[in-house]
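Quick review question:
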């Protein structure tokens, strides 16, 4: 889903975020907005989307995200930047994954 559609579905206007840098091409990894009008991206979704777009391994995608996306963000001076979030691993999700793989 396009970032603009996600924002509008949740009551935000893209104009509200004009000063915020976005990670182009990774709208599917956007998961929210901070109270400072910064777009929040899920790190794992960035990696997954990179795998899909570049048709590469997870390891290659991690390298790409770390160097080409996170490494290219300018220092946080004045301009609202994207926030990349690392989710805690939920033990229940881990157990579900193990159960599915055993089936």
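Suggested answer, residue by residue:
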């Amino acid at each position: 889903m396009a970032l603009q559609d996600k924002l509008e579905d949740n009551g935000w206007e893209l104009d509200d975020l004009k000063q915020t840098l976005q990670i182009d091409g990774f709208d599917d990894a956007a998961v929210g907005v901070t109270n400072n009008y910064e777009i929040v991206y899920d790190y794992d979704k960035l990696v997954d989307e990179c795998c899909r777009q570049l048709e590469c391994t997870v390891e290659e995608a991690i390298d790409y995200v770390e160097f080409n996306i996170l490494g290219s963000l300018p220092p946080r001076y004045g301009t609202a930047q994207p926030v990349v979030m690392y989710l805690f691993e939920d033990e229940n999700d881990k157990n579900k994954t193990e159960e599915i793989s055993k089936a």
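Why it works: The chain has a mean pLDDT of 80. The radius of gyration is 15 Å.
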